[in-house]
Amino acid sequence: MTATRDSASDRHFRSFCYVFITILLLFVMYPLLYVFSASVSDPAMVASGKVILLPKGFTLEGYRRVFQDKNILTGYANTIFYTVVGTLINLITTVPAGYALARRTLPGRRLLTVYFMIPMYFSGGLIPTFLLVNQIGLYNTRAIMVLIYAFNMYYCIICRTFFDSMPKEMEEAAIIDGCTPFQTFFRVILPLSKALIGVMVLFFAVEQWNTYFAAMIYLRDQDKYPLQLVLRKILVLEQTSAEMLSNAIIVVSSLPVLIIYPFVQKYFEQGVMIGSVKG
Known about the structure:
Elements: H1 8-39, H2 43-47, H3 61-67, H4 71-102, H5 109-121, H6 126-135, H7 143-147, H8 153-164, H9 168-176, H10 181-189, H11 194-210, H12 213-218, H13 227-237, H14 242-271
Helix pairs in contact: 1-14, 3-14, 4-8, 4-11, 4-13, 9-10, 11-14, 13-14
């Protein structure tokens, strides 16, 4: 069998795709490279526009000023704790809820879905929420940082759509084999949902890592502050050298996420369209 040769139009289209992707990559990579270069360059060079791609007047003064604050390591530890524990709680509440709402045998399934969706559009507001948090004893505790966003209905809908698209024959076979609903979920459904879980972990972890508003409202002690709030405080106090610190702060706060992303990229690629099309 002879291989089919590409036509001229196919080669031209492929060349166009390569050029387009290369240009798109440059647009995405340039801001990242610029921020890193600016963070290790002389602020005068950056302000005068002489830093375009490569560093000019190499200096680590911005990073030195950031890390000389003893609260940075505490903020890192707090953020890692909030991210890990918060992501686990998000998974425990959101993924099983999506599976339960996808089961057509669940009594009141549609009513529960509407009930869960109401807070997506209507809420009591910041002040009633603050009063509630204070009354139940969660104010100024680390627990509030992992419980305030413990459930996300938007991601629950994505999980529900994913589970609803799975073949029902698998559940029926598990039931015939004597599995209970819990055994079916943990032994059959979850092992087949790695792409979904990978995407959910990525989304939840990034949201938890970047959270700072809840800490501003519900935390008082600085030893409980997440990294984002610590960096904000440094930037506010160092207003005279904000230009020098801003790029270093961007790198310090973004680097962990950029390092972790390649390890979950394969799951993100498999599940990025989860919930968009029902198979």
